[in-house]
Amino acid sequence: xxxSPSEPASPASPSGRSASSKAYDLAVIGAGPAxxxxxxxxxxxxLSVALLDSAAHTGGxxxxxxxxxxxxxxxxxxxxxxxxxxRLRGRLAAGGVTHLAGHHVWTxxxxxxxxxxxxxxxxxxxxxxxxxxxxxxAVLLATGAYxxxxxxPGWTLPGVVGAGGAQAMxxxxxxxxxxxxxxxxSGPLLLAVxxxxxxxxxxxxxxxxxxxxxGYARHPRALATNPHKLLEAATHGTALLRHRVPVHTRSAVTxxxxxxxxxxxxxxxxxxxxxxxxxxxxxxxxxxxxxxxxLVPRIxxxxxxxxxxxxxxxxxxxLVLDGFQRTSVPGLWAAGEPGGAGGWELARTEGELAxxxxxxxxxxxxxxxxGTRPRRLRRDRARLxxxxxxxxxxxxxxxxxxxxxxxxxxxxxxxxxxxxxxxEAVCDLGAHDARTVxxxxxxxxxxxxxRMCGAAVACLAADGTADxxxxxxxxxxxxxxxxxxxxxxxxxxxxxxADGPIDIPADQPDTERPTAP
Length: 517
Description:
The chain is α/β, with parallel strands linked by helices.
């Protein structure tokens, strides 16, 4: 049952409601597909739910849509699954979920049994003066992911954007990153980005995929049980053929040329370890480059609390979750990309399952996790997760990409740390891990806190180990344990209790967890 208010009200949120005048059963962090589905499922099961998100609108990165002020008449034209999102958003509006937009969560603390506090900054960029706290009996993390970037000479020039960033510009701002845009990197997102840009009027001279698609053939069961994924790929492929966009596999953009902005890129063939093949480079004129090498789960809030993690096939760190989306910390659930990137359908499925599991745990109603609906969700999740693992394995970055880097290539953009300085820390100063490199060079100490350069620094650091860092030969995961998830003013830190956040061991047992049917 929902718990009653027990503390005085604090400043109102941008949605017009006080964020901490009420204690909720469940606080959901992230209003993308996973967070929306989890919040709606828990609300419909009878829980009081607060849904916090830094954006002004629901939908997350996948269902970004233009601000109404832009006057877009058909925002759904940029999405393949808009009707499903519209139904989910309609259920949210019809229910009792408290949507707290413009809330930038910077940490979560566990105060006592079934008592969590979510700390957030408010405003479009977290610039509001008063920090906000939201109390709840349980927390669901649906924090999504961010793009993995692997540097190369010229990647800091204006006109180089993330592949997902280019899509976000188009979906939310109705603008293109340039008139002639090369799309490069690795992963299925490249096809979607290229087809969207081409449909919007951009000239896309090439899609450059470093890995290729033959790796999917090693997972025939995952392909057979997810035919809609093949249909999606065929849809994007047909669109690229219609716009005469060539797709180059086993190739990579190894250099960007230009003075004040992008003027051209060098595309080279690469071997299976992503090492450039001599003599294969060719120059392609363009005024923008959209590049991305997969997604990195956003798990900072979870790892700060001590949640156990696992290594995904493409070399990122994701949360270890049980059959009902529970983390290793009691009272903390996660859904969507924090458990490993897998697309919006998997995120929605996991969010709904997590919402039912929280309702069962808090309401003492085990039938919510043992009925037909949870069994169907668990089957769907297993099927979609199998495809996600196959996708991650097929597009895993090879270790040879560091051959692209010259010593004067910036690796950490915030602190202007070059590849040469990182190599010096490894070869001359004995650093064999990303943390030591960070201490010696300041790589990862800037505004992004290593989100942009973490994978690159970890890979360069692993180059100094005997086995190259990993047995699989892929990019090693970077450290994801950060005490603060977003930049925070000192005044907000001063609002914490004197004893600070409570440290929760990752292996603490939860004897009241729901059991699998």
